[in-house]
Design a protein that fits this description.
Length: 341
């Protein structure tokens, strides 16, 4: 007995991706997928209703990845005033069962289903995929998680590790902490390398290093509701903005340090994986030497850090893929034991 189709969604702080997956003949395939900008809607129900205008009938089961703390059948998004309730979705849209998971749980679950073209290597290492793999993903928030595969069984779990206190590693970062504490307490890694964090780094570098702001970047920022793409584009353009590039360098240094912290805490011999929207855009276009230096600068563990593979997840819908496969496993188990889906 197999599940005919499954609805999957990845709801972040900025965008939502919705999709239908269908299982037939032992293969699980993407049938329909669409992306929505969250700023245009007042809640997830509006997005789902719009999606249904284009796709009918809706599957009876759903797995929804959400950027927030999942508490049983409900989740409040961390960076949006949206509350999602499984039972409410079941009643309004006719689902038989809805499963909510953290978005980093979904990204972790995707690792077992990504191909070589979906990944890029920063450090080769000598890892063993039978060991724990760690994930860190700077986006609207800073997600962290892990994946463990044992005898064909997978355990994927997201966390709220991005909210841990920022720990500076040199004079520049110590000055950054003092500067941030004037307006933010506590100062977390998420406040620096996710959401508006890159804008904070840009302003700090402008003040601390005295790097002048170019007129073109200042104009672009004034005309944009989101300064992050402006900073990234400014760093990547052919005659790159020195201030934007310095902010990106600092971003990568801090990200490397926290990625190394997570690798040590997980003993992630299976490797570390970088997701989110910014890092894939930077890979291959700016040096990651500062990232790797910070990643490996762990004192007595420096040699060990060089054995850990580090890879970038290039696939932008990894969380959606992970949510679908997580849901497939969840509902297949229910069917196998004769339970209501």
């Amino acid at each position: 007995m197999t599940m005919a189709s499954l609805f999957a969604a990845d709801i972040g702080g900025t965008k939502s991706e919705l999709a239908i997956f269908r299982e037939a003949g032992g293969e699980f395939r993407l049938l329909w997928q669409k992306r929505y900008r969250n700023c245009r809607f007042s809640g997830f129900d509006e997005i789902l209703a719009l999606f249904l205008d284009e796709f009918q009938p809706l599957p009876k089961v759903a797995c929804i990845a959400v950027a927030g703390v999942v508490a049983g059948d409900r989740v409040q998004l961390t960076n949006l005033p949206w509350l999602i309730d499984c039972r409410a979705l079941e009643m309004r849209f006719g689902f038989q069962r809805v499963k909510l998971i953290n978005d980093l749980t979904a990204v972790a679950a995707s690792l077992a289903h990504l191909g070589p073209d979906d990944l890029a290597e920063i450090q080769a290492g000598t890892g063993d995929e039978a060991e724990i793999r760690g994930i860190i993903a700077p986006g609207t928030g800073l997600g962290e998680g892990l994946l463990l595969e044992v005898q064909g069984q997978t355990f994927a779990r997201g966390s709220e590790g991005g909210h841990c206190d920022f720990a500076p590693i040199d004079d520049e970062q110590t000055a950054l902490l003092v500067w941030m504490q004037k307006s933010h307490r506590p100062v977390s890694y998420e406040s620096l390398i996710a959401g508006p964090g890159l804008a904070h780094l840009y302003q700090f570098c402008k003040n601390y290093h005295g790097i002048p702001e170019t007129a073109a970047i200042a104009t672009a920022m004034a005309q944009s509701a989101d300064s992050i793409p402006v900073i990234v584009d400014g760093a990547l353009c052919e005659d790159g903005c020195p201030l934007c590039r310095r902010a990106i360098d600092l971003f990568l240094n801090i990200l490397g340090s926290e990625t190394g912290n997570l690798a040590l805490k997980l003993y992630a011999r299976g490797g570390m994986y970088l997701g989110g929207g910014i890092v894939p855009r930077l890979f291959g276009k700016v040096p990651f030497t500062g990232f790797l230096k910070s990643f490996c600068a762990k004192g007595l563990m420096a040699d060990f850090m060089q054995t850990i593979p580090v890879r970038v997840i290039l696939r932008s819908d990894a969380a959606l893929i992970g949510a679908a496969h997580f849901g497939r496993a969840e509902f297949a188990a229910s069917l196998a034991y004769g339970k209501r889906v």
